[in-house]
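Protein record

Derive tokens from sequence
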Amino acid sequence: MGGVLTIAATEIRIGLRNRWIILSSLILLAFALILVLLGSAPGGEVKTDAVTVVVASLATLSVYLVPLIALLLSFDAIAGEIDRGTLQLVLASPVSRGAVLLGKFLGHVAVLAIAVSSGYGIAGLVAFFAHGGGDAGALVGVGRLIATSVMLGATFIAIGYIASASVRQTGTAAALAIAIWLFSVVLYDLALLGGLLASQDGVFARDIFPWLLVLNPADAFRLYNMSAIDAAAVGSNLGGGAGSALPLAGLATLLSPLAWAVIALGLSTFILKRIRP
């Protein structure tokens, strides 16, 4: 366990010095604060706490930015070591390959948690105090959003390891990571929307669509957070009505990212064990 923690601490130090991660975190904070300002405007007859409105907006932001930050953290975890010629040194240490990957995972998740907590925490506090304190219970929504955003990011960190372990060049791993992000947060939803429009009230829309929505960790994250927020603050979105069609929807949407993370870590560990540096 000591080796795992040592690797995790090293990855934290590297991650906190990574200019792309720093830039992405600043962009996350900037967008969060912008959404605080935009979300502070009164919404007509809808009487919703300002913090709740901000949380709803930040949940949508997370679907796009958090997976991207996670993939930026993980795409060169293995391929970068091969490119730099350091993988052989890492694997020569008295730590199993699975423990090496676990240490990297814990370190990357910690860096992501720092970025998300600082960005969303600051935005939530600004929204809370800018409106005279508001409902303290709304801050629970901010905490829930931070926790589920970190869970979403951890899932994509693990998925990024698959891309990183599957190739030997950092550039190729980066291209795969971008392809994963594009498919997961854009193309997948477009395909579901096309099927939904074609099916209308058919079997796909009624029985298949909700489960395909939960299958994607990004959509599962959105569905869970939106279902936990007042519907008046949420508005319409792709997953807006799917929650009622799913038995145990809350549990299913939470288990989807967790299952993806476990499967991805197992697969990337299997690939790493087959690499001969």
Residues 42-46, 231-248 have pLDDT under 50 and may be disordered. The two ends are 24 Å apart (CA to CA). The CA atoms of residues 204 and 251 lie 22 Å apart. Residues 97-130 form the longest helix (34 residues).
